[in-house]
Amino acid sequence: MLTKKTKTDLEKQQYRIIGEHSAVKICGWTKQMLRGKGSCYKFKFYGIKSNQCMQMTTSLSCANRCTFCWRGYKAPVSKEWKWKINKPEEILKGSLEQQEKLLSGFKGFKDVIMQLYNESKKVRHAALSLTGEPIIYPEINKLTELMNKKRISTFLVTNAQYPEQIKKLKPVTQLYLSLDAPNKKLLKKVDLPLFSDYWERLNKSLKYLAKKNQRTAIRLTLIKGINDIEEENYSKLIKKGNPDFIEIKAYMFVGESRQRLKEKNMPLHSEVKAFTKKLNEFLPEYELISEHKPSRVLLLAKKTFKKKGKWKTWIDFEKYHKLVLNKKKFESKDYSKETPKN
Asked: Which CATH number describes the domain made up of 4-337?
């Protein structure tokens, strides 16, 4: 999948390549939490501890060339899987080993909190969102089943170009779908998709997302002056997907995206909040309940997650694993718990 140069470039950026097509990299928020300097917004929103979260992907390849993506254009792109398939056991084992190796150097830093460092040795969460399109890995269901058995929660992000894979996906803790534009013309400009029927694929993906019983989320990445428009059209697409949660976050002027966009395209948190409030006007069944200013992201949640005046957006991970391993039907609310006030 990777040329020798591309692999070298990725390793210089602290990626660790697993087998032929997977990778892991330490998230910046993991490093921050080890030093007691705060957690990712997923902790505030859902209860995920950054020091025990592994950021990875099962496929470095993607079917889009998104303008806002931090990765370079030297990484592979493809509509279909055409590489050797590494076994899910190998991917998980290699990812956990590389995660531990990457974190081992932090043990010697004076500002690292040892209790948090020791906790980090036991991965409890996997963010399948590092780069590429993880859902196209042919053995994705076997991999997530292995993670379930190891009590590792799964947060999987898809770019909405593989509806059939979404349909066939077995339960994950939370399934994300990226919604990058409110209309067909703009989606092509922002995502630069390989598929000619990209718009139809997006709409079909939303349809299948709506049929999922476990927790779902739609994520909007706002690029100032480009896709921060047409709130009503966004709302129509969101209603098709019927997600439990909607995350609206700012494009960040980092990585290779700086060659394609400008710093002025990065909205302020206040601008993301203003957009979110306008969007919320078209989605009365949702409520703006939380925000994380360092990440410039806000959370809309379905009002059904509010019981007796208290929100239940956090995840009961023990309950989730018990439910998923029993292999009986269950829903997102079956493993939600009260969100602490913070």
From this structure: 3.20.20.70
Identify the CA nearest to 337 among candidates 71, 62, 46: 46
Radius of gyration of the chain (CA): 19
Whole-number Å distance between alpha carbons of 277 and 172: 29
Band of pLDDT at residue 3, cut at 50, 70 and 90: confident
The alpha helices in the chain, defined as continuous H runs, are 4-12, 28-34, 41-46, 88-104, 114-120, 140-149, 163-168, 184-191, 198-209, 231-241, 269-281, 317-326
Alpha-carbon gap, residue 78 to 287, rounded angstroms: 38
CB 168 within 8 A of CB 209: no
Domain layout of the chain by residue ranges: 4-337
How many degrees, rounded to 5, is the angle at CA 34 between CA 122 and CA 222? 100
Token couple for 167: 């349909």
**In this predicted model, which residue has the larger pLDDT, 276 or 5?**
276
CA atoms of 188 and 220, how far apart (whole Å): 15
36-81 tens-digit pLDDT:
998 899 999 999 999 999 999 999 888 998 988 876 655 678 888 9
Across the strands, what pairs with 298?
248, 291
Q: Which two three-digit tokens encode residue 60?
A: 């470095």
Phi, psi dihedrals of residue 261, rounded to the nearest 5°: -125, 175
DSSP per-residue letters across 166-217: HHHPPP-SEEEEE---SSHHHHHHHH--S-TTHHHHHHHHHHHHTT--SEEE
Q: Are strands 174-178 and 215-222 parallel, antiparallel or unpaired?
A: parallel
- 320 pLDDT band, cuts 50/70/90, is very high
Q: Which residues of 31-46 are buried (b: 16+ CB within 10 A; e: fewer)?
A: bbbbbeeebbbbbbbb
pLDDT of residue 75: 66
CA dist., res. 94 & res. 71, Å (int): 22
